[in-house]
Amino acid sequence: xxxxxxxxxxxxxxxxxxxxxxxxxxxxxxxxxxxxxxxxxxxxxxxxxxxxxxxxxxxxxxxxxxxxxxxxxxxxxxxxxxxxxxxxxxxxxxxxxxxxxxxxxxxxxxxxxxxxxxxxxxxxxxxxxxxxxxxxxxxxxx
Length: 142
Hints:
The protein is mainly alpha-helical and 142 residues long.
């Protein structure tokens, strides 16, 4: 404390200030995954695993392609047929039915997307709309 009476606080070094106030510096591990920082490896791994499994899904949590849905449907049907436990049979059959319904929705969406006119810059549809737009440059910035 005699340091503070001799030298103004703003002139002290960081080390002196730490000593004066009893502050210690402790090195810590940081785990970086993408743009995130985690204090524990288990948290970083959990996020990485979630991201990897989400690669099979869209941002809204739904399966991206009908192929994925059909694979899941087949997996649950196999599970239902290969067990002797009635509750597992029932749950797996319900899951397979749900994946089948989702596959039908995705197939319908894929068919509509394939049949829709192109919406890329330079396509006839977008060029026509662009001529009559209040903001003709919207969506065309590079």
